[in-house]
Write a structure and sequence with these properties.
- There is one protein chain.
- By secondary structure, the chain is an alpha+beta fold.
- The chain has two domains: 33 residues, no CATH class; 261 residues, Alpha-Beta Complex (Sulfite Oxidase, Chain A, domain 2).
- The strands form two sheets. Strands 3, 4, 7, 8, 9, 11 and 12 form a seven-stranded mixed beta sheet that branches. A five-stranded mixed beta sheet has the order 2-1-10-5-6.
- A hairpin with a 5-residue loop joins strand 1 and strand 2.
- The protein starts with 18 loop residues before the first helix and ends in a 13-residue tail after the last helix.
- The structure holds ligand MTE and molybdenum atom.
- The site of molybdenum atom has 8 residues, from loops.
- The site of molybdenum atom (MO) has 8 residues, from loops.
């Protein structure tokens, strides 16, 4: 992220992945021994993951060409595993996301602590191909496997005091070595207004490219909010809390003038230190011109109404 700029690693111009190749690739990945080091084999997959190759595509999926698996899994922001783009892929190799439980608490009538499998079991998984726009000025297109955040939140019956939802990442220095350095105020916390959280777009992602979520992308479960800058999409979630007051979010606390609570993708609101008008799609060759960043990352039809009458310059 922006505060700790390191040297920019050279981005390899990788092959693009047309949809047909992508679909083949998902089948391939489920059955290839060659990839079994990185990806779960069928035998390792929990029951809820076995039918993933046949999932339906969300009606909200973009037609943009997905970034390659390599791009999505080697160019990451996940400070719990280091601040360099290539650190998470290296440093999260041995992260063990099992067993995993999630605590739901705060302003709701059905709080509790759940094993990951029980937690996921009630929800309908789908493929969601979403654009991700990082506040740093790059973007990707990621084929997630996930389920509706709204469906999930409703299960816990939030009450009328639940105005916001707060999400927290695991805090365990022995498993997340980047937490030994105080580059951020651990644990990583993010939040949404309840109506944003109840919108049809956000998902809880548990996989990508038809397989289980790689560690560097936030295993075993992370949030994806496609109209906001990438840092709102918090990884490796262990706690969800319904609150009456606006949650204190990690990047907002670290640099309140640079990272607002809302952090909607907006080409007309510059970051104090750089323009947000354009973005570089990871994988595009360097000589290609950057592409225009679009308000709400192009998801305005679904979310613009949430901000009617709000000053998006003040509420950045
Ligand atoms: N816990 C945690 N979640 C995080 C981050 C992080 O450092 N820690 N980085 C964020 C940022 S800045 C981005 S752009 C996205 C990147 O997600 P990806 O690596 O799956 O593309 O994760 C977000 N979620
Ligand atoms: Mo980001």
């Amino acid at each position: 992220m922006a505060i700790l700029i390191r040297k920019k690693p050279g981005i390899k111009s990788s092959e693009i992945t047309p949809k047909s190749v992508y679909l083949d690739r998902r089948k391939f990945m489920k059955h290839s021994l060659a990839t079994s080091v990185l990806l779960a084999t069928d035998a390792m997959l929990p029951a809820w993951a076995k039918k993933w190759p046949d999932l339906a595509d969300s009606k909200y999926s973009t037609k943009d060409t997905p970034s390659t698996f390599e791009e999505i899994t080697t160019y990451n922001n996940f400070y719990e595993f280091g601040t360099g783009k290539e650190d998470p892929a290296k440093n999260a190799v041995n992260f063990d996301a099992k067993p995993w439980s999630i605590t739901v608490e705060g302003e709701c009538s059905k709080p509790g602590t759940f094993d990951l499998e029980d937690f996921i079991q009630p929800y309908a998984l789908q493929d969601y191909i979403y654009r991700l726009r990082c506040v740093e000025g790059w973007s990707m297109v990621i084929p997630w496997v996930g389920f509706s955040l709204a469906d999930m939140l409703k299960t816990f019956e939030p009450n009328s005091k639940a105005k916001y939802v707060e999400f927290t990442t695991l805090y365990d220095k022995s498993r997340m070595p980047g937490q030994k350095r105080r580059v951020l105020n651990w644990p990583y916390v993010e939040g949404l207004r309840i109506d944003e959280a109840m919108n049809e777009l956000p998902i809880m992602a548990v996989g990508l490219y038809g397989d289980m979520l790689p560690n560097q992308n936030g295993a075993p479960i992370r949030l994806v909010v496609p109209w906001k800058y990438g840092f709102k999409s918090i990884k490796s979630i262990v706690k969800i809390r319904f609150t009456e007051t606006q949650p204190k979010t990690t990047w907002n606390e670290a640099a309140p003038k640079e990272y607002g609570f809302y952090s909607n993708v907006n080409p007309d609101v510059d970051h104090p230190r750089w323009s947000q008008k354009k973005e570089r799609r990871i994988g595009e060759p360097f000589w290609k011109p950057k592409i225009d960043t679009v308000l709400f990352n192009g998801y305005g039809d679904q979310v613009a109404h949430l901000y009617q009458g709000m000053d998006l310059v003040k509420n950045f």
